[in-house]
Design brief:
With 484 residues, this protein is mostly helical. It is 76% helix and 1% strand. Strands 1-2 form a two-stranded antiparallel ribbon. α5 runs antiparallel to α12. The relative contact order is 0.20. This is Alanine/glycine:cation symporter family protein.
């Protein structure tokens, strides 16, 4: 355990920071700040994503699936842990991680769309393993990524999420963890046995409900103490650079915890979200990249910030707080609204974790599918093992598993971000094509596979258009009528 922690500290405390912030900054500069240039456009694409295109999953459903994974325990327990160990300044570095991560997310999800494959059932499958194989022609690298994806999300994170929710319910209601673990396994089994469509249907309902309810309650705390918000935001910024005396000794911890918990919360650059981004039926790959960059914004700048302000405005938190992130968030809300705040956090966390485990199970299936194919026996065996892990994880001390998951998560980021850096020219070609069509007046750009014949595309996923020039000409001709 000692050597595992040393390796974890080096990888997630040093290597991960360089990878996420360094390469994320490179993608930001190379794309001319795509996440800033397209920020207003993100809301338009989000609105357009509500329309279902064809028989496959819509862009909105893919967004809800990615938010099911991004918006999880990291937004409650992770933020609390970051503030506990790194002080208020950790929140600032979570913002920095998310800002550059939006560019990383744009490219990884765009490339997942470019290299996606039709699965023969009217749906698509894709992700980093597919753009590594078909974009870089490095199947060995894709196999390594898929193995890491299966171990990290399919096994380790499933156990961790189960532990988090069952112990939260035990603290709030006194429910024995072994029984809540079994109940959780049964409920999850009923959903994921129906495959990606049923997971998407459940996410469509639960993700907006859990997100809006949590934001509403935290906003109530923020609004009731609005006069303290400017000073709290100033404390966050000053603490991030060691300028706040009470937190001056936490500068290194603020950076490390901010990046680590920020990555755990929004997953930008890890190669997880592209697996669900690839399933959407969209007109242009970059449109899904824009939507997924927006989901990073929602996860960190909105939800994580709400949690951080809840903690810092409550009056419960003080430097040197000794406790875990869940307890800190529960007690912070209870300090403002009363004891029902602890119950609310437990219920919210349960919903967050439920959809997050569904997302993790699907990612594990994606990794397994790439490694061993679509055999039903293999898939059923995996699902049965996952249900056992959920029950087991609810009753264990998972410190070792958490350290191991951090290591494999860093390895995932390493493989994925190196692949993104090697494919940046392809990503820029897709982005430039998208931007050129928008400048030409096309509200919803379309992808013409014939213009990218040098790429290893699946022509079932991306059939040829009749004439892209006709589409642009029609959009230009429609502009005067729209203005009139």
């Amino acid at each position: 355990m000692h050597y595992l922690e040393m390796l974890n500290d080096f990888l997630s405390g040093h290597v991960l920071i360089v990878l996420i912030v360094g390469l994320g900054s490179y993608f930001t500069l190379r794309s001319r700040f795509v996440q800033v240039r397209h920020f207003p456009h993100m809301f338009t694409v989000f609105k357009d994503s509500l329309r279902n295109s064809g028989d496959g999953l819509s862009s909105f459903q893919a967004l809800m699936l990615s938010l099911a994974g991004r918006v999880g325990a990291g937004n409650i327990a992770g933020v609390g842990l970051a503030v506990t160990l790194g002080g208020p300044g950790a929140v600032f570095w979570m913002w920095v991680t998310a800002l550059v991560g939006m560019a990383s997310s744009f490219f990884e999800c765009t490339l997942a769309q470019v290299y996606k494959r039709a699965d023969g059932d009217g749906l698509y499958i894709g992700g980093p393993a597919y753009y590594i194989q078909h974009g870089l022609n490095k199947r060995w690298m894709a196999l390594i990524f898929s193995g890491l994806l299966l171990v990290t999300y399919g096994f380790a994170f499933v156990g961790l999420q189960s532990f988090t929710v069952t112990h939260s319910l035990e603290n709030a209601f006194g429910l024995p963890v072994q029984y809540t673990g079994i109940a959780l396994a049964i409920l999850l089994g009923l959903v994921f046995i129906g495959g990606i469509k049923r997971i998407a249907a459940v996410s469509d309902v639960l993700v907006p409900v859990k997100t809006l309810a949590y934001i509403a309650v935290t906003l109530y705390v923020i609004v009731t103490q609005i006069d303290l918000v400017p000073g709290t935001l100033l404390t966050i910024v000053k603490s991030a650079f060691g300028l706040e005396p009470a937190f001056a000794g936490l500068l290194g911890a603020a950076i490390t915890m901010g990046v680590k918990r920020g990555v755990f919360a929004n997953e930008a650059g890890l190669g997880a979200a592209p697996n669900v981004a690839a399933v959407a039926a969209v007109k242009h790959p970059a449109a899904q990249g824009v939507v997924q960059a927006f989901s990073v914004f929602l996860d960190t700048f909105v939800i994580c910030t709400c949690t951080a302000l809840l903690i810092l405005l409550s009056g419960f938190y003080a430097p040197g707080f000794d406790g875990d992130g869940i307890v800190l968030t529960q007690n912070s809300l209870a300090a403002v609204v009363g004891d029902w705040g602890r119950i609310f956090i437990s219920v919210a966390l349960s919903l967050f974790v439920f959809t997050c485990i569904l997302y993790n199970i699907y990612l594990g299936e994606n990794g397994l599918r790439y490694l061993l194919g679509r055999g039903k026996a293999v898939l059923l065996g995996y699902r049965g093992l996952v249900l056992v892990l959920i029950c087991w994880g609810s009753m264990q001390n998972l410190t070792t598993v958490f350290a191991f998951a951090d290591i494999t998560m860093t390895c995932l980021a390493f493989v994925n971000l190196i692949a993104l850096a090697m494919l940046i020219k392809v990503g820029m070609r897709i982005l430039n094509d998208y931007d050129a069509q928008r400048r030409a007046g096309v509200d919803q750009p379309v992808f013409d596979a014939d213009q990218f014949r040098d790429l290893d595309l699946d022509r079932q996923a991306w059939p040829a258009l009749d004439r892209l020039e006709d589409t642009i000409a029609e959009a230009r001709a429609a502009q005067p009528r729209q203005a009139h």
